[in-house]
Automatic annotation (TrEMBL):
<dbReference type="InterPro" id="IPR015424">
    <property type="entry name" value="PyrdxlP-dep_Trfase"/>
</dbReference>
<dbReference type="GO" id="GO:0006534">
    <property type="term" value="P:cysteine metabolic process"/>
</dbReference>
<dbReference type="InterPro" id="IPR010970">
    <property type="entry name" value="Cys_dSase_SufS"/>
</dbReference>
<dbReference type="GO" id="GO:0031071">
    <property type="term" value="F:cysteine desulfurase activity"/>
</dbReference>
<comment type="function">
    <text>Catalyzes the removal of elemental sulfur and selenium atoms from L-cysteine, L-cystine, L-selenocysteine, and L-selenocystine to produce L-alanine.</text>
</comment>
<dbReference type="Pfam" id="PF00266">
    <property type="entry name" value="Aminotran_5"/>
</dbReference>
<comment type="similarity">
    <text>Belongs to the class-V pyridoxal-phosphate-dependent aminotransferase family. Csd subfamily.</text>
</comment>
<keyword id="KW-0663">Pyridoxal phosphate</keyword>
<dbReference type="InterPro" id="IPR015421">
    <property type="entry name" value="PyrdxlP-dep_Trfase_major"/>
</dbReference>
<dbReference type="InterPro" id="IPR000192">
    <property type="entry name" value="Aminotrans_V_dom"/>
</dbReference>
<dbReference type="GO" id="GO:0030170">
    <property type="term" value="F:pyridoxal phosphate binding"/>
</dbReference>
<protein>
    <recommendedName>
        <fullName>Cysteine desulfurase</fullName>
        <ecNumber>2.8.1.7</ecNumber>
    </recommendedName>
</protein>
<keyword id="KW-0808">Transferase</keyword>
<dbReference type="InterPro" id="IPR015422">
    <property type="entry name" value="PyrdxlP-dep_Trfase_small"/>
</dbReference>
<dbReference type="InterPro" id="IPR020578">
    <property type="entry name" value="Aminotrans_V_PyrdxlP_BS"/>
</dbReference>
<feature type="domain" description="Aminotransferase class V">
    <location>
        <begin position="23"/>
        <end position="391"/>
    </location>
</feature>
<dbReference type="InterPro" id="IPR016454">
    <property type="entry name" value="Cysteine_dSase"/>
</dbReference>
């Protein structure tokens, strides 16, 4: 199935915005949803809306089967050993906070080190900042190369025997950099640290095998891979999860509650307090089915072709700066002369072209790039070369609109 055929499966893309056909280039923020996911959510609410695990009636059994079936889809999607290693969360942010609070508070002490990079999304910076403040640990950063990549020699220099946690994004949401997670994990483990991976931008685009990466935790969000918002998952090695305490308490995650003491359910449910995100998990399972059917070889090849085509089309556009390495995932972050990215995005939006403008929840990286903000076009399975043509034509018009800036 080619991208044009795939695009037809996304109802939202068949519309006009500001009098122009919609060109959606903001999938790094959130992807659009295929009809299969929309219909799955509709089916749940129409036919078997019920709470899970607690009832023996037919609707409850159907909901539970679908919910736990979605967990097994995530297990297979990440190649985890078993479903006990898959915790449903509200998304990547919640998953990373869970690790920082549950594992971090128990295992990090004053003088210990936490290692991240300047390219991280705020969701993979602030939880570690707060952990360092709570414990007296030291937050350290692996420096970036001039093109926004990581050199393993720098990882070797920064990670020491005092390091307890290394947390790195798999793919940069700004630069498109694909980080060498497997090699970084080897260095972390050699020094006695655990490896945490922010997989928000990798899980939708490249095949993830947590056993091959040998990471200890891996977090991702459903809404970036065609699933609903408000749902994601945390993979964790079972031995680590078993020794961690939950951070949310209440119904669903308990085994026994007395007047003074309570005990928790076994994995994975001890980390899923309250009524879970049932429809979200089922919808994310449908999204996983959808992209698995397409296949990651096809997805990676398609996005590589889009990136190559983007560089070919954009290279002759004067005054355009593209940030990040040439070898990258499907993200093109750029600056058009001295025009503010918000102004560029506004002119593009008037032509029906949706891009992201701002600091992309990566202010330390913006400082490293020596910019306040950038514009970003990000691709997914439904994007075509015609979308990139529209972007290029839109940027030409933006440059004409702000001609006084370039005179």
């Amino acid at each position: 199935m080619n991208a044009k055929e795939i695009k037809k499966l996304f109802p939202i893309l068949d519309q006009h915005v500001n009098g122009n056909p919609l060109v959606y280039l903001d999938s790094a923020a959130t992807s659009q949803k295929p009809i299969q996911v929309i219909e799955k959510l509709d089916d749940y609410y129409r036919r078997y809306n019920s709470n899970v695990h607690r009832g023996v009636h037919t609707l409850g059994t159907m909901a539970t089967d679908e919910y736990e079936g979605a967990r097994d889809k995530v297990r297979a999607f990440l190649n985890a050993n078993e479903t006990a290693e898959v915790i449903f969360t509200r998304g990547t942010t919640t998953a990373l906070n869970l690790v920082a609070q549950s594992y971090g508070d128990e295992n990090v002490r004053e003088g210990d080190e936490i290692v991240i990079t300047p390219m991280e999304h705020h969701s993979n910076i602030i939880p570690w900042q707060q952990l360092a403040k709570r414990t007296g640990a030291i937050l350290k950063y692996i420096p970036l190369q001039h093109d926004g990549t990581i050199a393993l020699a720098d990882v070797e220099d920064v990670v020491t025997e005092k390091t307890k946690i290394v947390s790195v994004m798999h793919v940069s949401n700004v630069l498109g950099t694909v980080n060498p997670i497997k090699e970084i994990a080897t260095i972390a483990h050699k020094n006695g640290a655990i490896m945490v991976v922010d997989g928000a931008q990798s899980a939708p685009h490249i095949k993830v095998d947590v056993q091959d990466l040998n990471c200890d935790f891996f977090a991702f969000s459903g809404h970036k891979l065609g699933g609903p918002t408000g749902i994601g998952a945390l993979y964790g090695k079972k031995a680590l999860l078993e020794n961690m305490e939950p951070i949310e308490f209440g119904g669903e995650m308990i085994d026994f509650v007395g007047l003074q003491e309570s005990t928790w359910k076994e994995l994975p449910w001890k980390f899923e307090g309250g009524t879970p995100i049932i429809a979200g998990a089922i919808g994310m399972g449908a999204a996983i089915d959808f992209i698995t059917d397409i296949g990651f070889n096809e997805i990676e090849q398609h996005e590589k072709e889009l990136v190559d085509y983007s560089f070919e089309r954009l290279k002759d556009l004067p005054d355009l700066t593209i940030f990040g390495p040439r070898d990258r995932a499907g993200v093109i972050t750029f600056q058009l002369g001295d025009v503010h990215p918000h102004d560029v995005a506004t002119v593009l939006d008037a032509q029906g072209i949706a891009v992201r403008a701002g600091h992309h929840c990566a202010q330390p990286l913006m400082k490293w790039l020596n910019v306040v903000a950038t514009a970003r076009a990000s691709y997914y399975v439904y994007n075509t070369k015609e979308d990139i043509d529209a972007l290029v034509n839109g940027l030409v018009k933006a440059k004409e609109y702000f001609s006084d800036v370039f005179s």
